[in-house]
Design brief:
Layout (H helix, E strand, L loop, with lengths): L2 H10 L16 E8 L6 H17 L8 E7 L3 E5 L9 H12 L10 H12 L11 E8 L17 H10 L3 E6 L6 H11 L4 E3 L4 H15 L15 E8 L6 H18 L7 E7 L3 E5 L9 H11 L11 H12 L11 E8 L16 H10 L3 E7 L1 H5 L1 H8 L4 E5 L2 H6 L2 H8 L9 E2 L9 E6 L21 E6 L5
Parallel strand pairs: 1-2, 1-4, 4-5, 5-6, 7-8, 7-10, 10-11, 11-12
Antiparallel strand pairs: 2-3, 8-9, 13-14, 14-15
């Protein structure tokens, strides 16, 4: 971490540990950088852009598991040079080399189509197809001199209203920052930049790379996800919740007792009854044991449930191994089934607490069961999967935690069990979350009155809005679409 960033952190009063207990460079970001490459951007401005981007990349770890960066240039044409899926650019050097090369390119003509660049970011980058990750912080950064220009003689593409595009990006949860490059920006250029940023975006007019980078850093660090917070009462819903607890030898006796205390507190807050919430409990180390499933009526009583939880983990295991794979497989085949007591109308939840990646002991002849097989089967049954990784090994093995959770699951990482206890609402949110749903589509006016234009369709994640850390609507399809309109001849 360079001296500039340390000074920046001190000046701004930023906490390097503000990102779920990790330093800012560990925040998972999907960052789209939109670079003005028009003819009005002279060599000094292009050099300034390279300095700003290089400083950013120094302090946000670009890698397959952490920050992903997409590069877009806009002049009379708009070019997406790479999206978030392109693994060639999961390192800083490749991005800097690409940026240096594209800034040498001369535009084909006069024009600055920031409107199309932002529209493409909304429709082609911050989408599942573009590689946008549901659990990453989404940020779009526009580096420009503010001079949005269309020359109709050479450019027949219709103007895309900034207000419609920024609204779509905001609905997706994308933070918009527009940064001015160059000195003495004209008043009309500043006004144009504010339009690019939308109602909730941020505009910075400083031309100095150090100051500008400092501001952008603050935006990115502030955007990092905070721990989940319950914003209201748990909704009146019935759940079938399977609790899978890691009891391997890496878990100390104190750890195990703390896990049981957290699970007991979870049951107390959510409740249990014959016609209410039901629980199943599985422990896994070198052995995997279903302590009880959803069918046993003696565990529809809080006292009996607490007693079994307490008795299930008394001492450290003597068996080597961590067979998380078998535990998930049994959840598919033995718990979330009619025979296991799974109720059709209950919300199905799987909560995994573990301190590290799965391990197969040398004396264990059982093959590894691919996690994708189990998570795909659980998702097809409608089971919500949450993995809570506890301790430094789990944080180091974040990729494995995400593999255990599956493509649609949730991963939360904690430095230790004390941090999880401090953020107990995270556990409640597993059961109390409400996933978002889309509203009906609304349509913008057609871009032209005749001759064929574009109409932008948008919808909002408000039916219902996600709450208590529920999922946003990205899993349900795009938030913005376009269609042709007024195709009649003029």
């Amino acid at each position: 971490m360079d001296t500039l960033w340390l000074l920046t952190a001190v000046i701004l009063g930023l906490s390097l540990g503000s990102c779920q207990g990790q330093d800012a460079s560990r925040c998972r970001l999907d960052l789209a950088i939109l670079v003005d490459s028009s003819k009005s951007m002279r060599q000094p401005q292009r050099t300034e852009i390279k300095a700003v981007v290089s400083d950013l990349l120094d302090n946000f770890n670009v890698s397959a598991e952490e920050t992903h960066v997409a590069l877009v240039t806009f002049d009379i044409d708009v070019v997406i040079h790479n999206n978030f899926t392109d693994s060639r650019y999961y390192n800083k050097k490749a991005l800097e080399k690409k940026l240096k090369r594209i800034l040498k390119r001369a535009p084909k003509g006069w024009g600055t189509r920031a409107d199309i660049a932002l529209f493409d970011a909304a429709t082609k980058l911050f989408t599942p197809e573009g590689g946008d990750r549901p659990d990453a912080v989404d940020v779009v950064l526009v580096l420009t001199d503010g001079k949005q220009r269309i020359f109709p003689k050479n450019d027949k593409k219709p103007f895309m209203q900034f207000s419609e595009t920024t609204k779509a990006l905001e609905i997706k949860g994308v933070d918009i920052t527009v940064a001015g490059i160059g000195k003495n920006l004209a008043a009309w250029a500043k006004k144009e930049m504010k339009k690019m940023a939308g109602n909730n975006g941020t505009v910075y007019l400083e031309a100095n790379a150090t100051v500008l980078s400092r501001h952008i850093h603050k935006v990115l660090v502030d955007a990092c996800p905070l721990p989940c917070n319950m914003t209201g009462k748990c909704p009146n819903k019935i759940v079938d919740m399977a609790l899978l607890a890691d009891t391997s030898r890496s878990m100390t006796s104190d750890d195990l007792h703390q896990v049981i205390g957290l699970l007991n507190a979870l049951v107390d807050r959510l409740g249990v009854s014959p016609y209410g919430n039901h629980y199943a409990f599985v422990t896994f180390d070198g052995d995997v044991v279903i302590r009880f499933n959803f069918t046993d009526p003696q565990y529809y009583n809080k006292t009996n449930l607490h007693r079994n939880l307490n008795d299930s983990i008394t001492n450290q295991t003597t068996v080597w191994g961590t067979r998380t794979d078998i535990a998930l497989h049994l959840a598919v085949t033995k718990l979330f089934t009619p025979e296991g007591g799974d109720r059709p109308k209950a919300k199905d939840i799987l909560l995994v607490l573990t301190d590290g990646k799965p391990k197969i002991a040398g004396a264990d002849p059982r093959p590894l069961i691919p996690f994708s097989d189990s998570t795909n089967a659980l998702e097809s049954k409608g089971v919500d999967i949450t993995v809570m990784g506890i301790g430094p090994k789990a944080i180091e093995e974040e990729a494995k935690m995400r593999e255990i959770a599956g493509s649609n699951g949730t991963v939360r990482l904690y430095d230790d069990l004390d941090e999880l206890a401090d953020q107990f609402d995270d556990m409640l949110a597993v059961a109390c979350s409400i996933d978002g749903g889309y509203s009906d589509w609304s349509a913008s006016p057609c871009s032209v009155t005749c001759g064929g234009g574009i109409q932008i369709l948008t919808r909002t994640c408000t039916n219902p809005p996600p709450s208590n850390c529920g999922k946003d609507c990205s899993r349900l399809g795009p938030v913005i679409m376009t269609k042709t309109c007024n195709t009649q001849k003029c």
